[in-house]
Amino acid sequence: MSRIVYVNGRYLPYGEAAVHVEDRGYQFSDGVYEVFAIHNARMVYEDPHLDRLERSLGELRMAPPMPRTALKVVLRETIRRNRSQHGLLYLQVTRGVAPRNHAFPEATESSLVVMAQHTPPYDMETVNRGLAVITIPDIRWKRPDIKSLSLLPNVLGKQQAVEAGAFEAWQVDDGGMVTEGTHSNAWIVSEGGELITRDAGKAILDGIIRRALLDMARSEGIRFKERAFSVEEAMAAKEAFLTSSSSFIKPVIRIDGRDIGGGKTGPLTQKLIGLYAEHLETLGPLS
Amino acid sequence: MSRIVYVNGRYLPYGEAAVHVEDRGYQFSDGVYEVFAIHNARMVYEDPHLDRLERSLGELRMAPPMPRTALKVVLRETIRRNRSQHGLLYLQVTRGVAPRNHAFPEATESSLVVMAQHTPPYDMETVNRGLAVITIPDIRWKRPDIKSLSLLPNVLGKQQAVEAGAFEAWQVDDGGMVTEGTHSNAWIVSEGGELITRDAGKAILDGIIRRALLDMARSEGIRFKERAFSVEEAMAAKEAFLTSSSSFIKPVIRIDGRDIGGGKTGPLTQKLIGLYAEHLETLGPLS
């Protein structure tokens, strides 16, 4: 598959898409990113993602690479040039190129990379099959609320999951409470039928699908609570699932080898998947 | 200054030294590094650095980019082509280029970048002047013993130091104990004249100069202890200093605005600086 990648002002063939070795993203993970779902050639939740990007940049005092309106043009043009129908749009901003030194450089221009990844469209059958997760200690830095490139612990955690035959690893803080997955938010449905996901403090990344789902629950009258839950509580849950822009909503039917909800996708999870699928169909045309 | 950078098998002019946007170092900080001091065109403590590199790679289950003997040739050739007399040699290894996915890719070749940075030679007068440090919470991930590219918290900490008019920030764990600086190890001399630096567990990076200094202390009969010390203990210390391959030994004469040892470089610090300078002169020729 030939692809076009936007790199600092130019649309380049995939093989030529390169950045300087002293880009601070490469030497210091001094940068942030966003991943947009593309559905029928449209970005899903474009502005919420761009809001969060601006928050991440602000927390790190990093200059936006360009105004939002211009950035939207680049995003659309990358979709167009790649003829993307379904998949992901990956955007990365770093503090730019400067001679290696931990402190912020005096004056650099932020680097911007945008690329598309094709994936099969959202498939209800696969989604409904359900997945396994494992639990691992959360060894990340104390600001996972910033969507930064400091992802090495996430890489190691995901790899652990894969080697255990699981899809994702739920990270557990020092107090035994689940924070989130290595690339997704974690949810359970309690004994009492309440939807539960960790509150969006500094311990987790406030996922875009996470927020969208809370909005849906609100408008559908589904009871939910944003609070920490323990591994034990998850093990005893009626249902469990995970969310992210690349995973949407995926049922979790096994945690550390133990069946959750009888090892089947639960009714509330199924309902939310349906609501999300409906939402996808309401997206406006790519403008 | 025109420079030559080694990038994956080629010696390139600085301006052309680039890596692919999907190099896992750029997207996930999935890589490790080393910084060698160059003194009179020779690497200082070459093998200890390469030992540590191999340890970091092993901890992350990352393949070495080439055997040590070949790597030594690349390091020497980079020094030679840059006519480096004094400065730093920076080496970075990442898990290579692969389509973005947190888990380890099936088969990639590790990326290798080596570059030189010129600096003025070790200058006793500047060194003896002494520096200020501030203390900040240690917000890093739980494996700073691995010399990884996940350096964003270090970047933020160093920037805080610079803005406070200090050279370095000493990071403090949840128990109020100093771990280390953002790019150097932290040392104090206790009331009783004992040299103290944090033990090399998982809370700090085991610095090469740190280890060399402990060896010197051992052979010189200087009393030392590897243990955690609190900010209060550091404030009350007779002397303080920091070490790293780029800083060597630098006296710390102010912590959070308070003078340490009367705001002057202490005698033990001075002695260690002298011993280190002597060691530099004993280095063999670049082979």
Protein model, in words:
2 copies of one chain form a homodimer. Chain A has 2 domains: 4-118, Aminotransferase class 4, branched-chain amino acid transferase, N-terminal domain (D-amino Acid Aminotransferase, Chain A, domain 1, 2-Layer Sandwich), CATH 3.30.470; 124-281, D-amino Acid Aminotransferase, subunit A, domain 2 (D-amino Acid Aminotransferase, Chain A, domain 2). Helix content of chain A is 29%, strand content 29%. Chain A has helices at residues 24-28, 46-59, 68-81, 124-129, 152-163, 208-220, 231-235, 267-281, and strands at 4-7, 10-13, 18-20, 31-39, 42-43, 87-94, 111-118, 131-137, 168-172, 177-181, 185-189, 195-197, 224-226, 229-230, 239-244, 248-255, 258-259. In chain A, the strands form 2 sheets. In chain A, strands 8, 9, 10, 11, 12, 13, 14, 15, 16 and 17 form a 10-stranded mixed β-sheet that branches. In chain A, strands 2-1-7-6-4-5 form a 6-stranded antiparallel β-sheet. In chain A, β9 and β10 form a beta hairpin. The longest helix of chain A has 15 residues, at 267-281. The model of chain A has no long low-confidence stretch (mean pLDDT 94). Chains A and B meet through β3, α1, β7 and α5 of A and β3, α1, β7 and α5 of B. β3 (18-20) of chain A pairs antiparallel with β3 of chain B, so a sheet runs across the interface.
